[in-house]
Write a structure and sequence with these properties.
12-stranded mixed sheet, Fumarylacetoacetate hydrolase, domain 2, 5-stranded mixed sheet, single chain
Length: 294
């Protein structure tokens, strides 16, 4: 099942509502025939019964909208938390000249950085060192604490794609990295949330990133140092995970900072990330204060 947050392009009310993608149509889960929450985090928090109702929605009389006639938001437009794991791909660690980490290196991305597919990434006024990072992301499906790695799959609602856009000079000047990872528009997420039954193994997915058609990253999630399940265990040891929390799992080799000279993003660029089994996340790049998405 592929869950989306969407609005009709001609809707006066642009509040995102939840839907399930069926072919080239979106079935509206907020339609009275289904009656599910319009907010993705609330939908996930509603539990197994809600997920079963969502899966059965295509068989109901719920309204359907052509995919071409809707605007997709990030699957979780305002996550409770957005957490990123740094230095989690062996080849990326090597290209950055860093030692292979013995422990998970976590940072926070402010949730206000999250944007939708096709929405513009801004190059901020204060830096030109803006970098892309194509990543597998997963979303927590139920409130949990102290989850063992062996049980972690049971708390994951699904998988998506994140571009962990990074402002490198601001990142390196702060030991926590949060400032360089949290600029507005620097968390593209989408295009949808793919439930685990469609992903045989999240640790064996091909991941590629293009900038203006130039292939920059071409790897597999099997190069991850720490697995998704180890991530859940580590995070939930410290704090409660909640429905809708987004976890971005690290990026492979080929980031802009690794080139000589670096290949920073500039206005006019387009970043395209393709993740096997999930789909494509594409975003244009503009200068801060440039035109918004229609």
């Amino acid at each position: 099942m592929r869950l989306v947050s969407f609005a009709g392009r001609n809707d006066r009310d642009r509040t995102p509502r939840t839907g399930v993608l069926v072919g080239d149509e979106v079935v509206d889960l907020t339609d009275p025939a289904v009656g599910l929450p319009g907010d993705m985090a609330d939908l996930l928090a509603a539990g197994t019964g809600a997920m079963e109702s969502a899966a059965g929605a295509p068989a109901t009389a719920a309204a359907r909208h052509p995919l071409a006639a809707v605007t997709l938001f990030a699957p979780v437009p305002r996550p409770p938390k957005v957490m990123g794991l740094g230095m989690n791909y062996g080849a990326h660690v090597a290209e950055m000249g860093r030692p292979r980490p013995e422990n998970q290196v976590w940072f926070n991305k402010q949730r206000t950085c999250v944007i939708a597919p096709d929405e513009a990434i801004e190059v901020p006024r204060v830096s030109a060192q803006v970098d892309y990072e194509g990543e597998l992301a997963f979303v927590i499906g139920r409130r949990c604490r102290h989850v063992a790695a062996a049980d972690a799959a049971s708390v994951v609602a699904g998988f998506s794609i994140m571009n962990d856009v990074s402002v490198r000079d601001w990142q390196w000047r702060s030991p926590t990295w949060t400032m360089g990872k949290s600029f507005d528009t620097h968390g593209p997420l989408g295009p949808w949330l793919v439930t685990p039954d469609e992903i045989e193994d999240p640790h064996r997915l091909r991941l590629r990133t293009w900038v203006n058609g130039e292939l920059r990253q071409d790897s597999s999630t099997d190069d991850m140092i720490f697995s998704c399940w180890e991530m859940v265990q580590e995070l939930s040891t410290v704090f409660t995970l909640e429905p809708g929390d987004v976890v971005s799992t690290g990026t492979p080799a080929g980031v802009g900072a690794s080139f000589d000279p670096p290949k920073w993003l500039v206005a006019g660029d387009t970043v395209r990330i393709e993740l096997e089994g999930i789909g494509i996340l594409e975003n244009p790049v503009i200068d801060e204060g440039g035109p918004a998405r229609p």
